[in-house]
């Protein structure tokens, strides 16, 4: 009986130590992922864009690239990014932005318009960080 208790306790200790190791390593990799994410994300200034039907869209974005170099290329081309955003978003209509897929539409529209600006890298994702529609 004592042998069964000892084996059970040993298995429990090994299992708990494995779980603790996994949790500690998992949280550190998450913090590393977040640190590298910030190295690859360009935050835009809030922009007010006139869209169809005499409406206005104010939008702020976080543009995720595939590398620090790509982020630097986008930062250097920021006036072109603003221009592409104005051209591509001004063609949208208020009801398209207001529906349930409106934010996704904005994100896809921006990706399609600014991806060609990167000569070597790529835009992985665009996140809408602020949106006001009037």
Automatic annotation (TrEMBL):
This protein's record includes keyword RNA-binding: no
Family named by the database record: Belongs to the FliL family.
Topological type in the membrane: Single-pass membrane protein
A Gene Ontology biological process term: bacterial-type flagellum-dependent swarming motility
Protein name: Flagellar protein FliL
Compartments (UniProt record): Cell membrane
Gene Ontology cellular-component annotations: bacterial-type flagellum basal body; plasma membrane
Domain of life the protein comes from: Bacteria
Any Pfam family matching the protein: FliL
Function field: Controls the rotational direction of flagella during chemotaxis.
Source species: Halalkalibacter wakoensis JCM 9140
Keywords linked to the UniProt accession: Cell membrane, Chemotaxis, Flagellar rotation, Membrane, Transmembrane, Transmembrane helix
């Amino acid at each position: 009986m004592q042998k069964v208790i000892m084996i059970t306790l040993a298995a429990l200790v090994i299992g708990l130590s494995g779980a603790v190791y996994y949790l500690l390593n998992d949280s550190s990799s998450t913090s590393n992922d977040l640190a590298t994410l910030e190295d690859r994300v360009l935050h835009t200034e809030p922009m007010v864009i006139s869209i169809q039907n005499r409406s206005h869209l104010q939008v702020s974005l976080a543009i995720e690239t595939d590398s620090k170099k790509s982020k630097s290329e986008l930062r250097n081309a920021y006036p072109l990014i603003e221009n592409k955003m104005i051209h591509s978003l001004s063609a949208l209509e208020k009801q398209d932005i207001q529906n349930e897929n409106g934010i996704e539409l904005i994100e896809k529209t921006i990706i399609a318009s600014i991806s060609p600006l990167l000569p070597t890298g790529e835009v992985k994702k665009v996140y809408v960080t602020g949106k006001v529609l009037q």
